[in-house]
Amino acid sequence: MFRKLLIANRGEIAVRVIRACRESGIRTVAVYSDADRNALHVRMADEAVHLGPAPARESYLDIPKVLQAAKRTGAEAIHPGYGFLSENAVFAQACADSGIVFVGPPASAMRILGSKTSARRTMEKAGVPFVPGSTHGLTLEQARVEADRIGYPVMLKAAAGGGGKGMRLVKTETELASAYENAVSEATRAFSNGEVYLEKFIKQPRHVEVQVLADSHGNTVHLCERECSMQRRHQKVVEESPSPVLDDGLRARMGETAVRVAQAAGYVNAGTVEFLLDADRNIYFLEVNTRLQVEHPVTELVTGKDLVHLQLHVAAGGKLPFEQKDVRIQGHALECRIYAEDPDNQFFPSPGLITQLNEPAGPGVRVDSGVYAGYTVPLDYDPMLAKLIVHAGTREEAIRRMERALSEYVVGGIKTNLGLFHRILNDAEFRSGNMDTGSLDRMLSMTPTASAQTKNKEIQIAAIAAVMFAMRSNSHGGRTKPTANGASSFSSVASHGQTTEPSGWREAARRESLR
Ligand code: MV4
Predict the structure, then answer these.
(1) Which among 172, 184, 269, 275 has the fewest CB atoms less than 10 Å away?
(2) Pocket around ligand 1: residues whose beta carbon is below 6 Å from it?
(3) Whole-model pTM above 0.85?
């Protein structure tokens, strides 16, 4: 195993990797920018190297600076986390050329999968079902012919894209020329590569992804699926495993297909195979994310496998310590992504000083957080603060556990999306388990009714009361005494909105949660 590893990332994922390293006796090197001098990952690592100014181009994305930090500190391996350099084949190749282990797939697999057209050609050869359409970049004239062949509506996509960038829906031939020009120019600007291709448009698809894991000895397994349809503008908000819409047959077929995808690309390490599932339950390969994903914890909780430990193990040349038949799903896991953003103002980022922080705990609750009370969230990077993940026996129990954990969660000083999850978890489509990628937009387009707002406020008040109750039990080392009318301090707080012993912390929590 490695003696020292550099984490080329920040925030909760850097912290997550540092924790796994500490458990394995691996020394850790953090890197940071001017904006991250006081960041949690810097405090938690054994060593830290300053990279440069706040803009990612001059710090976290600067390949020579990151490599130099690894060489100077004697790190034998680099974990890229997600985002930043994690899917950059040039970086993976540069690590290999410098004799540093990149904790991720070989650069060759990243090149095959990084181009959506080359990925589609590879899957065509391997007999993997993919969305009907072209497997090469197209001129406008070729696009016209191809669109006529597969039938409108079609989607124009950037070959270098992924995650929704450079995509255009084309409903009729009259829209094709202008959509083509737009897609090419957007792709050129975003990826310095204007190659676009066509796919048949799948209406209201569900987004289901399969976690795969491969070692360098030819063994590949899948760790079942995650359902990620609850998203807004290609930003996932709630994820879960297993998917409520898969049965064992479809799960096995998707898993086997994902393993075939990985093998066809020469994949090693952890990766995610994305599928679209249409209304008739057809599955279509979409793309591979060649990194550890934000939502990996839901897979860890239901399979009992630690993905970061496994990534480190296979990157160091180890064999997979289990076989496919040993992978089973236990119970149900849900994840809520906590963002510093304002749901009442078009989800604009809301950076600033975190004045109060109470992260939930208790049975079946995990918080992967990159922040602490007194930390100032910078505006330079993604505004995700933390992930709240719960595990329980059934989906219903997991939803109730998530509501309980959310009721304990207090983030003061900045706006967050915490208040949104109660609505999502009680949304009829979400409850049914039959969501698609339009479900969250439909929910958000319905302004909450006055009664729903009243209900929300009641729940918020109950949430603060629950936190106060917990604090009180802690500080007094015992139960809360009933009040004269027989109610506990819980209902007393709920009805009067104040405690008998006002404290700075409680008052701040009350102000935050009532906002
Ligand atoms: C599609 C599609 C419908 N038909 N492709 C968006 C992100 C990128 N990974 C692929 N995406 C889509 N591709 C065809 N041929 C609909 C989407 C899509 C979507 C996919 C996954 C998760 C959320 C989504 C939201 C809107 C559209």
Answers:
(1) 172
(2) 131, 155, 162-164, 199-202, 205, 207, 231, 234, 276, 286-287, 437
(3) yes
